[in-house]
# Entry
Amino acid sequence: MRKLLIVFCLMMFAIANAATDWDSEAALKRVNTIGSKLLKANNVNYDIEFKVSNEEDVNAYANLDKEIYVYKGLLQFVDNDEELAGVIGHEMGHIINGHCAKQGVLNTGIAVVASMVTKNETVNAIGQHLAQSKLSRSDEFEADITGIDLMVKAGYNPLAMPSLLNKISGDAYIDILQTHPSGEKRILNAYNYIEYNYASKLKNGYNTDSYKKAIEMINPAIEKRKNSQRLTKKFNKQQAKLLKKKEKRAKKMQGTSSVWDGYFTTLQYLAG
Ligand SMILES: [Zn+2]
# Structure
């Protein structure tokens, strides 16, 4: 009898623990808070909606309906809100830069098939497909640095981005995982951008093991560049080009572009 009672107590304890482990409402609130903060601080004029998926995968994606899905597995995987801001900022970067629309054109086949099912399923099917189809290497780089800009304006430490990229490079995070470019190149791309645009943030560093590992990984490449005039020149040229793009992007996301720009984008989209 006593044994049974102990087993019963253990069972109740396990059930209570499982119930408090995952609170999808609280998770949605967390994602919404960070997402809204990123949108507001950057005056992003797009109607982006945030959703939480109860699936265990370490995953997130953005879809054509301007929805960003963050999976339970990913929410439990990030160290803090700053890394989560990195995830959401990256996905917002795909939307702001029009990567989703571009991929949507490439993948109209699946959209047609999916239109036969319900709207929600359609959205998910397309989103899943987008996440699994390979976005180009430059799209991933661009989403990372857009995320960094969004983070800085919203008061998040941009060094959480390289920290996050290091962490997920060995994991099953479908979107950010995109095996091309390698994790190391993604980290270096993010680091270089931060060094050029937000030098003061680098001085303070970032206190996660993952960030330290990321820096160790890319340090030889940084040293090599700093010791080479040719590589320094190349770095400055690349970053100056990115800065111009950044200014264009800022105008675009704040909706200050002309009506024609909107038509043009639609025409381009339809023309594929
Ligand atoms: Zn991505």
In short: The longest helix spans residues 229-253. The beta strands are 49-53, 60-62, 67-71. The chain has one domain: 25-271. The first strand starts at residue 49 and ends at 53.
